[in-house]
Design a protein that fits this description.
The structure holds four protein chains of four kinds. Chain B is about 65% helix and about 0% strand. By secondary structure, chain B is mainly alpha-helical. Chain B has two domains: about 90 residues, no CATH class; about 290 residues, no CATH class. The N and C termini of chain B lie far apart (about 75 Å). The chains are: A mainly alpha, B mainly alpha, C mainly alpha, D mainly alpha.
């Protein structure tokens, strides 16, 4: 069974891939078959993933891989393969499960779209590529799947191709991530020239194992940084985060799947996967490359949280939230908390997908209204959505004990606290956590509390006027499922975290809670707030109103000014670059173009279009050759 | 050896004539020899033409339950002479807007090529007037020139009937040249030579003393022979494929604007082309000058050849008396959809026959190949409208 | 005798070629073209390559000339017009001719007599064609098929 | 006794140049094709002549090349004439002077 699982891990991505191709070949009207196929493919992938996960639970540090020769060139053989370890297995289950929920959600959400089948083909294709990234045991294979993921994301973001903004967003996403991938590719090349292999694990000869790392030597830092470029692009880290909010132009399930749960996680996963490269030659767990990761992560997390506070688009808030959480994960990885980072990644995948699905439900219910200012009071209109969204929000905010987000964030903060280089990331991340709670509360209040505003009224009449159709029910089911899944997962994860933490750090066992020991006041504050949340719904409203007022004040006075200052800075930079472009580059390009055009004009004059002129020229050329021949002999 | 003497009597006669020139330069002898061949050929075939022209009318007359020409000379045998005199004294009309040179050259070219094609056929043992290595190729090379001549006739006349007739003629000749040539390929393959003499030699011998080794006795040979014969009918514009000169449609096709002796030349060229094609069919499939049965070998070879040729010519006339004219699109469809695939099948069947040892097994397999393709083609080409009610359309 | 034949054939060929190049009526030029190729085939006979000569006649007279004639018929409306003549081309052609003649006469080893050869039988050509040249033969077959299909597609009715 | 090699070459050169003349000077597209065919025939004549006058015995390479060249010329003529017909249908002319869409 185990051997079978390891040897056939490739089936996991193959199932959705096959589904994708079959769907692509279907007629546009075969909607049911398309949806069924996609779901079947995903269920197959999920089942296999669970088997794989079970396999990895057999022993701690389980790792199995299967390599084979792809092709040979000269004396070298390029080998690729797949690997199964806890990292991959957990990601597999997460991707397959979240993916499945989103597939089901999409059936309702996209029910009226004319390109329904195409959408499912793309979704399946994306799922296959993402699963491929996870199981790859070769940097090359990973890169291939990585690019396929990029392609799928491009197709999905630009799914509504008739919308110019969607097309532009798709292009932007594609090109921005490509910039990072360029660095990634250079890193691959460097790695190959340095270590002579692209396999991660190869019985001691892989590039993540001692021999390969020793062969790389000092250049490991640069390789790691170049690979990090790819992660920066894909995971929307500063400065390549710009594509992610725009990518919300795609259908909401896409946002949930790609931009919350899976694709953006690919960058974090990549860093975790090649972590030995980053940590090679570490002194006390610190390397230059990891420091860069931490810095980038901190900047991203804070900046995105701040921006999220000033947004009014329901999905954009979540998008920026995603960016900030990804930054948080990067920080965690950078300071050495790989397990914490990955746990947060997986937990985040679940609850962010939930939030997006909830947002999708809201958007769907309010007839594609995105502006939270036009919503309000949806609590009573969409109770299930409200409940699930609140669960997601509490997760994201890091409410402890009952929600996985609380556990993982605590773990991350703990990891940052123990970073030897500087305490700064720790405090900044703390600020980030506070900000997260802040903007999520703001969003909750805007959307679900208060008076009903226009969009809500519309929904109200809609709900009263008609019976909720199939789509709505279908929308709700996976949301419930996901929320249940991660509430359970939260408790389970808490158990794992604490067992894990206990094993990792025995002397800490006496302390009540790592988070509390680090920041007792805030911990109590957050804890109290969450208890209120859980137990007294009325106090939540009061608190929320207070928080809303605070956030409103902050919005108006602090963040707005900050954002404006940042904007001014950007403008200044823009003026500078504009001048450089116009004076330096444009002039040069213009001159070159003018020269080429002039030359072209001169040469086009020689083309009379008369075939006989050309023939005559050939004959004259032949005569010239004859004369040359005679002259030479 | 009296049989041999009779058999080789014409060769001996030629050698005797040439012996008068002993001592003359080599090239004079060569030219004289060629001239003798040419005169013999012309003499024989012009006579045959005259005979056939009257015989055809008589046979057709019989078939149509009437008398043929029977007034001039005994049994009307001098009829061709009368016809010739009539043609010669007719006025030679050239249309005013005709392309005079082309108009003039067309009958010459068409007759010349037809006669040239006769040169490579072996009429008897050692009796090939122009024995070259690539004789079959020569035949077709020369034969293909006919199309150009027909075109010249059509164009030179500057007459729309002529032009249409010429285009029809060229179209059908080009189409049927393909099956014609391809059906000769199995023979060339099996004999391993393009030379008619070698091909005739390859058909010598008998099984059991009475089944001659002619290629027509093999399944592929029989099929190829039929295809070849049909293509030959088209090439010589004979009924039922005489649309290029169908009187009821386009007067006389490319010959419309010709009169008098030029018309006679066309007429002659048509018959000589018919002789040439028949002669080639005899050479390729019917064993050339070989006797059909071993015991009849004492009869001179040229007699056998001309007997077979006459038989084929009779079939030509017979068909003319029997079949109605085919529509041009049917002719073309038939060429490309049936004749061509069948011709290729013959090649394949011949290969099967050859590589299975030329024995009974090969014979049967070859038959099976041809039969399968024939049945398949019959089913494929069956339009299922053969007996549909005829609908008449009138000009409205 | 061969010299006589050579001179006769050369005169015939070149005269027909000149006619083909210069006759005002396209149809006459096409017929002269056919005669030119008969002349070239005769040259091949003279040089002992009977098979090539026959193929030349067969292909050029039987196929190419007929094709040309058919094309003339199909584009007949245009035949009467465009009698234009480009004298620059004549100048170039004469210059090239001069250059070629000069190069031929300048190269001394060219004025050699023919060595005796054994007759080039069809059988030998067939053997060579099926052994050493079997690949070129296949390629030529492919080219011809492609040309046939291409020509058919080209002359199919344009869908408007 | 066959005439010497250079006589054949001169005839071939003359044929080539007449073909060139036809291809360069005539306005009608078919003339250009005729000219090109003549040039090819001149080349074939050269191949055969060089084979005939080369050291004997030798494999009939020149003859082979000439045969292939004839086949290619036939293909070329077929496609060329099809082109002429297609061009005529489209532009209602076969005068190459009027076919100058390639003019720069």
């Amino acid at each position: 069974m185990t051997a079978w699982t390891v040897n056939n891990v490739w089936l996991i991505p193959a199932a959705p891939l096959a589904a994708s191709f079959v769907i692509l070949s279907l007629a546009n009207s075969r909607r049911k078959s398309a949806a069924a196929l996609a779901v079947i493919g995903q269920v197959a992938a999920l089942t296999l993933s669970i088997f794989a996960f079970a396999t990895t639970l057999q022993a701690p540090g389980y790792r199995a891989f299967h390599n084979f020769t792809w092709f040979t060139f000269g004396e070298n053989a390029l080998r690729i393969g797949w690997v199964l370890d806890p990292l991959a297995a957990a990601m597999l289950v997460m991707i397959a499960l979240v993916g499945l929920c989103i597939f089901i959600f999409s059936i309702g959400y996209m029910a009226e779209d004319k390109d329904f089948t195409r959408f499912f083909a793309y979704l399946s294709f994306f799922s296959a590529a993402m699963l491929g990234v996870v199981i790859a045991n070769s940097l090359l294979l990973l890169f291939v799947c990585w690019e396929l993921v990029g392609l799928a994301s491009y197709l999905l973001i630009g799914f509504w191709i008739h919308k110019p903004s969607a097309a532009a967003a798709a292009k932007k996403a594609f090109i921005t991530t490509r910039i990072g991938d360029m660095g990634f590719f250079l890193g691959i090349l460097w790695l190959y020239s340095g270590s002579g292999t692209l396999l991660f694990y190869d019985n001691g000869r892989g590039c993540l194992e001692s021999a390969g790392l020793l062969a790389l030597g000092a250049s490991a830092t640069f390789v790691a940084l170049l690979i990090f470029c790819g992660a920066v692009g894909k995971s929307g880290q500063f400065p390549l985060h710009v594509w992610l909010p725009d990518a919300m132009e795609g259908p909401t399930p896409v946002s949930a799947l790609i931009h919350a749960a899976t694709m953006v996680a690919a960058g974090v996963f990549l860093v975790a996967r090649v972590y030995p490269l980053f940590s090679f030659g570490a002194i006390d767990g610190v390397t230059p490359s990891l420091t860069v990761v931490v810095s980038i992560g901190v900047i991203t997390a804070l900046m995105a949280s701040l921006i999220a506070l000033a947004q009014f688009d329901i999905k954009r808030i979540l998008a920026y939230s995603t960016v900030s959480q990804l930054g948080l994960m990067m920080v965690s990885l950078g300071v050495g908390g790989v397990a914490a980072g990955m746990m947060h990644l997986i937990a985040h995948g679940f609850f962010k997908a939930l939030l997006f699905l909830g947002a999708g439900s809201v958007i769907h219910g309010t007839h594609h209204e995105h502006d939270i200012r036009k919503m309000g009071g949806l609590r009573s209109l969409m109770p299930v959505t409200f409940l699930t969204f609140a669960i997601g929000m509490m997760n994201l905010s890091g409410v402890p004990f009952f929600f996985s987000g609380g556990w993982t964030k605590e773990e991350i903060l703990h990891a940052t606290a123990r970073w030897p280089t500087s305490r700064l990331p720790h405090y900044l991340m703390f600020a980030g956590v506070v900000l997260t709670a802040l903007y999520m509360t703001r969003q909750m209040i805007y959307v679900f509390f208060g008076n009903r505003r226009p969009a809500s009224e519309q929904l109200h009449s809609y709900l009263n006027g008609e019976t909720p159709h199939f789509g709505v029910a279908l929308l709700i089911q996976p949301i419930l499922f996901v929320s249940l899944a991660f509430v359970a997962a939260g408790i389970g994860l808490g158990f794992v975290v604490y067992r894990h933490a206990g094993l990792q750090d025995r002397h800490r066992a006496a302390e009540t809670d790592p988070f509390e020991s680090a920041q007792p006041i805030l911990f109590r504050f957050l804890g109290n707030k969450m208890w209120l949340d859980e137990l007294y719904a009325n106090t939540v409203i009061a608190f929320s109103k207070l928080a809303a007022r605070i956030s409103d004040w902050m919005d108006r006075n602090v963040w707005d000014g900050l954002v404006r200052a940042l904007g001014g800075l950007g403008q200044l930079l823009g003026i500078f670059t504009t001048n450089f472009d116009e004076r330096g580059i444009n002039t040069g390009v213009d001159e070159t173009t003018a020269g080429t055009r002039g030359l072209g004009r001169v040469m086009s004059g020689w083309h009379s279009g008369q075939i006989q002129t050309y023939l005559g020229a050939v004959a004259v050329g032949m005569l010239a050759l004859l004369i040359l021949y005679a002259w030479l002999t | 050896m009296s049989g041999d003497v009779v058999d080789q009597i014409f060769i001996r006669a030629k050698q005797w004539l040439l012996s008068w020139l002993a001592g003359a330069p080599d090239w004079i002898i060569q030219i004289t020899s060629s001239l003798l061949n040419i005169f013999a050929l012309l003499g024989v075939f012009l006579t045959l033409f005259a005979l056939i022209s009257v015989l055809e009318r008589k046979i057709l007359g019989r078939m149509q339950n009437r008398y043929g020409p029977n007034r001039v000379g005994p049994f009307g045998l001098f009829q061709p002479i009368a016809d010739g005199i009539k043609m010669l004294i007719k006025e030679d009309i050239v249309p005013a807007r005709a392309d005079k040179i082309v108009h003039f050259l067309a009958p010459i070219l068409i007759a010349a090529t037809a006669i040239l094609a006769l040169g490579v056929i072996p009429y008897g043992r050692n009796m090939t007037p122009f024995a070259i290595d690539g004789g079959i190729l020569f035949f077709f090379a020369v034969g293909s020139t006919t199309e150009l001549a027909v075109f010249m006739a059509g164009w030179g006349s500057n007459n729309k009937f002529s032009m249409l007739g010429a285009m029809r003629a060229i179209a059908q000749m080009v189409s049927y040249e393909l099956p014609l040539i391809i059906t000769t390929l199995p023979v060339v393959m099996v004999a391993g030579a393009l030379s008619p003499d070698v091909i005739v030699t390859a058909q010598a011998g008998y099984s059991f003393g009475f089944v001659p080794h002619w290629f027509v006795t093999t399944p592929w040979g029989a099929a190829a022979f039929v295809l070849f014969f049909v293509s030959g009918l088209v090439e010589s514009n004979r009924t039922p494929f005489d649309v290029p000169e169908g009187e009821s449609e386009i007067v006389a096709g490319h010959m419309t604007e010709y009169s008098g002796f030029k018309y006679a030349t066309f007429f002659m060229a048509e018959y000589i082309g018919m002789f040439a094609i028949s002669g080639l069919a005899v050479t390729l499939f019917l064993g050339g000058w070989h006797a059909p049965v071993r015991v009849l070998q004492f009869i001179p070879s040229y007699i056998w050849f001309f007997a077979k040729l006459s038989a084929l010519l009779f079939v030509y006339i017979w068909l003319r008396g029997t079949l109605p004219r085919t529509r041009i699109d049917h002719i073309m469809n038939f060429a490309w959809k049936f004749m061509l695939p069948m011709a290729f099948t013959c090649i394949f069947a011949a290969a099967v026959w050859h590589y299975m040892g030329r024995g009974l097994a090969g014979w049967l397999c070859s038959l099976a190949v041809i039969g399968i393709v024939y049945i398949a083609l019959s089913i494929l080409l069956d339009t299922r409208k053969r007996f549909a009610t005829r609908t008449y359309r009138f000009a409205e | 005798m061969n010299s006589v034949a050579f001179i006769l054939i050369a005169i015939l060929t070149l005269a027909a070629a000149l006619a083909a190049a210069s006759l005002p009526k396209l149809i006459h030029a096409a017929l002269s073209f056919a005669v030119t190729f008969v002349g070239v085939a005769a040259f091949f006979f003279l040089l002992g390559a009977e098979f090539v000569g026959l193929v030349q006649v067969f292909v050029y007279i039987g196929a190419v000339a007929v094709l040309i004639v058919f094309t003339i018929l199909l584009t007949r409306r245009d035949v009467g017009k465009n009698r234009g003549f480009n004298w620059g081309g004549v100048a170039i052609a004469i210059a090239v001719f001069g250059g070629l003649i000069w190069a031929i006469l300048k190269t001394q080893p060219l004025s050699i007599a023919a060595p005796p050869i054994e007759a080039l039988t069809v059988k030998r050509i067939g053997e060579v064609l099926m052994t050493s040249y079997v690949w070129p033969l296949q390629c030529v077959g492919l080219v011809l098929t492609a040309a046939l299909i291409g020509a058919l597609i080209l002359v199919m009715n344009e869908e408007r | 006794m066959t005439p010497a090699l250079h006589l054949f070459l001169i005839v071939s050169a003359a044929l080539f140049c007449i073909g060139l003349l036809a291809a360069l000077s005539r306005r009608h597209a078919i003339f250009i094709l005729i000219g090109i065919e003549m040039m090819l025939a001149a080349a074939n004549l050269n191949f055969i002549a060089f084979w005939r006058f080369g050291p004997q015995p030798q494999p009939p390479t020149g003859v082979m090349v000439a045969i292939f060249s004839i086949a290619i010329a036939a293909a070329e003529a077929a496609v060329g004439l099809a082109l002429v017909i297609a061009v005529y249908r489209h532009y209602r002319t076969t005068n190459v002077d009027q076919l100058n869409r390639l003019k720069g």
